[in-house]
Amino acid sequence: MIAEVVRPAISALPTLRRFGITMVQEVHLLDNIRQYQPQYYQMSRQSIWHRVPVSRRSAVFILLFLGKMGELRVILTKRSSKLRSFPGHVSLPGGKSDSAVETEWQVARREMEEEIGISQSNDFLLKNMGFTIEHLNILPAYLSRTFSAVRPCVGFMNVRNEDDLHKLKISLNPGESSSIFSSPLRDFLHPISEESYEAVERTSHKIRWGGLPWNLRSYIFKQNNPNEAEWLREIDDLSMSEDELEDLVTGDKLSKSEKLEAWGKLGSRRDEETNEKVYDVWGLTANILHDIAEVVYANRTSRELGEEELIYSIWKYGGQMHEKKRSEEEVKLINSRSLPNEFGFNDILPRTEFLKLKQIYKL
Asked: Residue 142: what pLDDT?
């Protein structure tokens, strides 16, 4: 495993900001997103997202806005600990499609309204809150660990007057989200860039999932953030305390916190060195934000993003992702830890197809 860890001194961050990494307005960089041309499987004109069952279609919303220093920031949520999948993790607003006629934008906007209360209707937003959300672009499909095709929809808050943002009444749905915050998009460039606005630790690991190359990234931010937008500071955090989590003991003698951690690292915890509360943005969310940061700041408008080819191979040659219920093979891959002789993608794909995918996603 190749690992790269960057942990800048927290005291050095104000100096970086003062002298400027690029403290100019970044709104012009949105053109890089608008001009990005998604590349789909087998040179198709349409994403594999439209070929998998409705129950396997998901969409997330990358909602960008300008921060205090003119930097692009992205809104993130912490999933409720009550959810069945990835409880307590930091994620982008989003969820599953409800019907075959629902578009990616409709899924992402509907789920964002359900989770954090930002209306699907631009007319409503403009009339009542003084801003609209511009639809910039949609990235190709990514493969989630639970074998869904996830399409990230990228939008920007066009604010008429910043004072109007105080009219924005974000209401967290306690069954979906427990907290909301924002982070600078530029910080997700690591490991391409060492520059950091607010991230106190960033790691990038090269691993394998089911025998195929995979990126495992993590970006850590302080919860007590003086650069946070004022309209986000006003929102109550609905997260359970660590003591409350420990009090929820299940019948199999595992505490609630242990059950949550079975899905991976929790999105909220205390830093081992400083004891400060931090958010940990990792996994698929981190990979998606890293990729869109590349498009924005490195102008990677021709780069192939997502896992369209992998999803297509799983669907066409592996006979998977055809039904709502996860197959026995999918469950094995979901639980895979990439140990020697463990069940992998090579067990469901023809050898030539597996080797082709290894080359496409090579380390």
From this structure: 98
Q: At residue 176, does pLDDT exceed 80?
A: no
Greatest Cα-to-Cα distance within the chain, rounded to the nearest angstrom? 59
Q: Hey, is 256 helix, strand or coil? A: helix
What is the fold, at CATH topology level, of the domain defined by 27-227+265-361? Answer: Nucleoside Triphosphate Pyrophosphohydrolase (3.90.79)
| Predicted local distance difference test score (pLDDT) of residue 13 | 37
Could you tell me the CA-to-CA distances from 157 to 32, 66, 124, 125, 151 in Å, in that order? Answer: 16, 8, 14, 10, 19
Give the CA distances from residue 139 to residues 5, 79, 106, 150, 239, in Å, rounded to whole numbers and listed in that order.
27, 22, 15, 9, 30
**Structure-block tokens of residue 132:** 């609209």
Alpha carbon of 336 to those of 29, 308, 326, 339: distances in Å?
Answer: 39, 21, 14, 8
Yes or no: say if 361 and 305 are a contact pair by the CB < 8 Å rule: no
Contact 179, 239 (CB under 8 A): yes
DSSP β-ladder status, 149-159 and 142-143: antiparallel
pLDDT score for 151: 98
Q: What is the mean pLDDT of residues 345-353?
A: 97
State how far the alpha carbon of 178 is from the alpha carbons of 116, 159, 264, 340, 356, in Å: 10, 26, 18, 38, 41
Pair 154, 292: CB distance under 8 Å: yes
